[in-house]
Amino acid sequence: MSQPLIILYDVPAAIPQPWAPNIWRIRFILNYKHLNYRTVWVEFSDVEATLRGIHAPPTASRSDGRPIYSLPTIVDPIRSRSHPTILSNANIIAEYLESTYPARPIFPEGSCAVQSLFVHYIQEVFAKPLLPILVPLTHQVLPERSQAHFRGPGSAVQLTGAQREQAWRAVQEQFEFLAGILDKNNGADGNGIVVMGHDVSYADFALCSVLIWIERVSPHDGWARVRQWNNNRWVRLWNKCKDYMDVL
To answer: What does each C-alpha distance from 46 to 86, 141, 206 come to in angstroms?
Structure first.
């Protein structure tokens, strides 16, 4: 039986390659597990209508109870083409792909809990100082319809030179802290580059997804800085993950 064609929903950009870190986490898994998939591109202004149309679950609710629809979303017809599995939320999708397609695991035995904590840290703490830098730059690389969808007070406020340098110092502090933690993997049985010490895992894909976001929207400023930090540690992680960066 041929492997089903999974559909991954992603947002387009004016730059050649996709940028969204949460969606890259899923693309990494699909590529790593050698799963058969294709990408469907959906502009931000069409996300809710598109996901409602395929009966995708919402990922959150507004204060008034209205559902919030967001990407990534996948459609997997493994059990039935007429009633496929449709999932949103990167962590839910990651755990589903691991349980449904266990070959080439991204959660080594006994690591799901600690990796989930690490990914939560990456999303909620580590990446936060990047937001005032990268959100305005990301806005600039969106198609015009998506730019208009987000246009409003403060939607694309560029930092001044001094503000940008201060923001990058805050980013570097997070990278320095994380490098110190990962250095604990150094030794006879670990190389200190990947989170689990040996092979790439979901935690590495979550971290490298942030690196991709920096490289895609700020290649000459942001990535030029980051790639030099911590003895080129982040370039070495990038190289560990680069075989799984295909966009299908």
So the answer is: 18, 17, 26
- Cα pseudo-dihedral 103, 181, 231, 32, rounded to 10: 10
Q: What is the pLDDT of residues 40-82, one digit of tens each?
A: 999 999 999 999 999 999 999 998 989 999 999 999 999 877 7
Domain spanning 112-244: CATH 1.20.1050.10: yes
Q: Which percentage of the chain shows pLDDT scores above 90?
A: 78
pLDDT on residue 130: 97
87-138 confidence digits (pLDDT tens): 999 999 999 999 999 999 999 999 999 999 999 999 999 999 999 999 999 9
Question: What would the CATH number be for the domain defined by 6-100?
Answer: 3.40.30.10
Burial label for 135, CB within 10 Å (0-12, 13-18, 19+), is middle
Contacts of 138 (CB under 8 A, 6+ apart): 13, 19, 213, 217
Rounded CA gap, 150 and 19, in Å?
17
Show me where the domains of the chain are located.
6-100, 112-244
